[in-house]
Specification:
This protein is of the alpha+beta class. The protein contains four helices and five strands, in the order αβββαββαα. A five-stranded antiparallel beta sheet has the order 3-2-1-4-5.
Length: 136
């Protein structure tokens, strides 16, 4: 987590008060965004996040896998200018990708990170069903 936080802080411009880094993943698909709040309360989006941070999140996602429960789909790191960091890992909610990804990505994710039947959320169950139905 330190590697992720350091990468965020390296890319934050000027006088900032808060940086929120959100990373979503499913199967082989991932996306991220870094929103920065400046000290004057304006905000900006940073598009150049170090690859080391993204790779660290990929490792973290694998490492946080829980047998039968799967792993998280969304990780949020909120870093304050004091360097205090808050994290949140969402194992249940549908990840908010900037573009629609194929249901096959969720099938792949479930193969990589198996979940017991009781730990498959309804939205994921619907994606898996769509993947079985094939292109329509």
């Amino acid at each position: 987590m330190n590697e992720v936080t350091q990468g965020i802080v390296q890319r934050v411009p000027g006088s900032w008060s808060k940086a929120e880094f959100t990373y979503v993943a499913a199967g082989g698909t991932s996306s991220y965004e870094l929103d920065v709040t400046m000290v004057d309360d304006t905000s900006t989006q940073v598009h150049d996040v170090p690859l080391t941070s993204v790779r660290a999140l990929m490792r973290l996602r694998r490492g946080m896998y829980r047998e039968g429960a799967g792993t998280w789909f969304t990780a949020t790191f909120t870093v304050y200018s004091s360097l205090k960091c808050e994290t949140h890992f969402d194992y249940e909610s549908e990840p908010n990708f900037p573009i629609e990804i194929t249901p096959a990505s969720f099938v792949e994710d479930l193969k990589r990170f198996p979940r017991d039947e009781r730990n498959i959320p309804d939205w994921l169950r619907m994606k898996l069903q769509k993947a079985q139905e094939g292109p329509g």
